[in-house]
């Protein structure tokens, strides 16, 4: 019987721990971790994400500030706000909600955020620290995956790990984190030859390619652990992952469901990064 790796339960446990840490930081150091979230335009999905982040901050006792800017905001205006937040001692984490409207240069905006306050871990300086294993902050979704493996006592060291996907947000950083945990890592992508054979070697398979139910039973090794990062909406409105859950459930030893697996961990790890960034100020 496969272990169902619950991100919902794990996330709730971590938030309870973070709440206690925040209280201690306030009482002993007089410091309240603060997160600023900037949203430009009125993308409905982005607005939901921002609302959820704001609620999560309040839940653990952190300061949360949301800056809503109109669609026609200029690059100069957005960069000016980032500069203001960089200099604000009450703000320890800055997150600019992506995607930005097309007339704004995402790269320029990300590069402008002070690396110490880059709680998304998109700045090249922080990506560099991650790659050499000398980091405080780690990208939220990959960090959430690693936390799930840790809390469910799934050993990475010495295991064959296969990552499906090479995005800068998930694929590349999760490959680095697995490597630093002493996994033997193969990163797959659209040009990988004999993809099914490569995936079948995996003791730990991470799916992060954004294709609904792409991973079937013929791609999974008997007894593998499967971490499904995908969140896809089907024509009938239902949510599914990159893994065909029903097809592989009897073959795997552990799996994250979608929804309720990796998803809830992302905002929780954002909160953790904000706390870590605040502690760096002490």
Number of helices: 10
Helix content: 40-55%
Low-confidence stretches: none
As laid out across the biggest beta sheet, the strand order is 1-11-8-7-5-6
Structural class: alpha/beta
Portion of residues in beta strands equals: 15-25%
Shape: globular
In total, the number of strands is 11
Could you describe the 3D structure shown?
With 282 residues, the chain is α/β, with parallel strands linked by helices. 42% of the residues lie in helices and 16% in strands. The protein has ten helices and eleven strands. The strands form three sheets. It has a six-stranded parallel sheet. Strands 3-2-4 form a three-stranded parallel sheet, with helices on both faces. Strand 9 and strand 10 form a beta hairpin. Helix 1 runs parallel beside helix 10 (263-280) and helix 6 (140-151) packs across helix 7 (171-180). The protein starts with a strand and ends with a helix. The model has no long low-confidence stretch (mean pLDDT 97).
